[in-house]
Design goal:
The protein is an alpha/beta fold and 293 residues long. The chain is 41% helix and 13% strand. The longest helix is centred in the middle third of the chain and has 29 residues.
């Protein structure tokens, strides 16, 4: 039977207009889970700022927000560059005023055995996923500290921040940093009214899933038609379920929750077998030949 399916896209648990007059700044919100989060804030009245490097992603996000009747601004931004981040927040403030909510959604990830990983691959993923999250939070936090206004930050994490991520050492290390950063900033900035949380998605199929990740899922989980059978909930997540969690955390009803990492994955990351399955090396799971220098 599993966990029941969620309400349809468009349903909201919070009151209509919960975010009227507020602005939500979301990185990487043109597609995938970022767009799903932005959509739920938009449905509740928020103005949306989408920060992304790619024009086609910004356009896709803008079209989606306008279809929901939301005010939207898109800004080109490489979150590895603090000056670009400052310029993006300047543009947001000029259009809507200082954003009330920041969602650090943008990240980089691809599966690779650690021995095959180039120094540049390591640096790129850590730079976007961890450094970019900090640089955006820092810019947002400094502006609210200076203005003396309350705010909410939601960082997007991953369950391998706790468990480690074989095949994803770069991303797992970076996401562990994001989780710790969330906890540190929540304590530092709480006295000034800034709430900081982390939101972790489970398997929620979307268009941003790269081909190599989809291939690995198909190889190890039997393909999309069998992914449900690999989840304790007996189904994968729907992307709006992550958006609903985000809107709750940033709403007036979730403000006493801070420094917390909320996992939205139907308990999948806590699953254990009664007996340990045979160990299959990561290279074999990825269909790669034995390593050679």
């Amino acid at each position: 039977m599993g966990i029941p399916a969620p309400p349809p896209v468009g349903d909201t648990a919070l009151k209509p207009g919960t975010f009227d007059g507020q602005t939500v700044f979301i990185t990487g919100a043109g597609t995938g889970l970022g767009k799903a989060i932005a959509s739920e804030f938009a449905r509740l009245g928020a103005s949306i700022v989408i920060a992304s490097r790619k024009l086609e992603h910004r356009q896709a996000g803008e079209d989606a927000m306008k279809a929901l009747g939301a005010e939207v601004l898109t800004v080109e931004c490489d979150i590895r560059d603090p000056d670009a981040i400052a310029a993006a927040f300047d543009a947001a403030a000029e259009r809507f005023g200082l954003p009330n909510v920041l969602v650090n959604n943008a990240a980089a990830n691809f599966p690779v055995p650690a021995e095959d990983m180039s120094p540049n691959a390591w640096r790129t993923v850590v730079d976007i996923t961890l450094n970019g999250t900090f640089f955006c939070a820092r810019e947002f936090g400094r502006r609210h500290l200076d203005a003396g206004t309350p705010a909410s930050i939601i960082n997007i994490g991953a369950t391998y921040a706790w468990t480690g991520g074989p095949g994803f050492a770069h991303s797992a290390a970076a996401k562990a940093g994001v989780k710790n950063l969330t906890e540190s900033l929540a304590v530092e900035w709480g006295p000034s009214g800034i709430q900081v949380n982390c939101l972790v998605p489970g398997l929620m199929p979307h268009e941003d899933m790269t081909g190599d990740i989809q291939e690995n899922l198909a190889r190890t989980h039997g393909g999309p038609n069998k992914w449900d059978l690999c989840q304790p909930a007996m189904r994968v997540g729907e992307r709006q379920e992550l958006g609903w969690a985000a809107t709750f955390l940033a709403s007036p009803y979730g403000r006493f929750i801070s420094g917390h990492t909320l996992v939205v994955d139907g308990a999948n990351w806590q699953r254990r077998s009664l007996t340990n399955p045979a160990v299959v090396p990561i290279r074999e799971q990825m269909g790669k030949p034995p390593f050679e220098m």
